[in-house]
Amino acid sequence: FKAFGKIKVSAILGWLIKWFLILVVLMAVADILGLTQIIEFLEDVAAFLPNVVIATVILLIGFVGGNFCYEITHRSVKAAKMHSPKFLGNLAKWSVIIFSFMAALIQLNIASSLVQTLFTGLIAMLALAGGIAFGLGGQEAAKAFLKDMKKKL
What we know:
Layout: H1 9-33, H2 36-79, H3 85-107, H4 112-137, H5 139-152
């Protein structure tokens, strides 16, 4: 995210407001000139702008949240003296960024069914991986737990 370090939120919002004002002026000029097709097109663009603003906010929050998750994960893993704090920090950071990117795509109605299918597949993959890992790695623990419960009953 260091490549984006010089971009400011105020600059992005200023850019969006500038183009919104240009759009309003173009709509007024097209209305004065009686260009109905251009007016309809510009109205469609103006109706789509709130989605762009919300998607931009989602992405900004995703990048900020991703960097926050990186710092928290990296420092926690380092403080616990566990292995690979950078890897786990980057995993947390990019997970948040990718999910925010997917949410922004859904907000813009860009391939929303594909994004939802990918998200469902990712969650199913994680659930299946967790089930297999617990099933193979936790057999002894589950056996001991069930045996203890049987004794208590």
